[in-house]
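Recall from the previous chapter that SMILES is a line notation for molecules. Here it describes pyridoxal-5'-phosphate.
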Amino acid sequence: MDFSHLLKKRLFSPGPTEIPLRSQFAAVDNNPYHRTQAFYSIIMNCLEFLKGFFGTETMPVILTASGTGAMEAALVNLTNPGTRVLMISGGRFGDRWIKMAQAYACETTVVAVPWGQSLSPDELLQQLKKNSGIQAVSFQAVETSTGAYFPVAELARTVRQNSDALVIVDALSSLLCHEMNMDAWGIDCVFAASQKGFGAGAGLSFIALSERARSRLSVRPRFYFNLVEEMQAQSTGKTAWTPGTQSILTLQASLKALSAIGREELYKFHRQMAYAVRAALAAMGIEPFVKDQYAFSVTPFKVPSDIAGEKLKATLQEKYSVTFAGGQDHLKGKVLRLAHLGFVDPFDLLAAIAALELSLKGHGYTKALGLGTNAMMQNFPMWGEK
Ligand SMILES: *Cc1c(COP(=O)(O)O)cnc(C)c1O
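With both inputs in hand, we obtain:
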């Protein structure tokens, strides 16, 4: 019997993520006009919330562009042709940014971190010593393709104490799950996007520049991504261009909900969910892709070698209506990614782990059912003793 059409869709991709119903309802408005005081107030309200989550006193701006647009905005506004950028890459998103910087004729120094690993402040220091005259350092806080966390505070401090370079951080899949204190940590540019931890539709990104970054703006030609113009406009809630109005309504509702939970609680919650997922995988004999410095937002894991990862993903999807993300580039077929950012909760994850156990069994994996779900329940404090 096939009941799959009766199952709820359960989404565990590292963006897009589930949008809470209440936020979806908030967007039920007849195409709001953005040149109204009412809409300016909504923008201002979103910016206030974002400011808090970025850990900055400067106002971020909202761009109507996916996260890749924010990556480009950072490069276009903060680098010139020939700017020496030290780019740390530990996976697909780092690689994408390098390609982009090269397309913009930056002089890139690539620090290639093996996929699944992170970079220590000491290693970064060696790189800074070896490559003099670096004007900007960029990295992903969480490399979403591998699930590695880069120690943002320590890396930023290393750059600031040992060079004059700008620190540019792609926080797309870390914000709201890992601490971010842009000002206190001396970061010059941070960006994030709506479809990751924010529980809103895709198509918006958020970017903030430090005072230092604002004093070093590029001379590049730019128009849509002119951040100075955008900051000027958004200081009163006006956007330079037509924003993704419907998505902004969703975003505002989700930001309200996230803000009511509070930063510290969110970090603890996501850390604990990552821990519980790892405990579940361990009990099932499944190895997470990252050993030590792992993300609290997404857990990629190795598919047992005699099972085709893409087929396992298809079974999860088709039979159990559960969406995991696949591995990227050379990890395709070898790794699946289970994301727990945004509004995913432990009961959702219990369903994900149960579906994974069932799917693995369907593919001939012989471990008993219930090992993963059991471990998960034992390792989540709201259920267990700990
Ligand atoms: C998703 C993601 C991006 C790209 O964002 P899009 O919204 O898909 O353009 C960039 N960096 C990281 C770390 C991401 O997770």
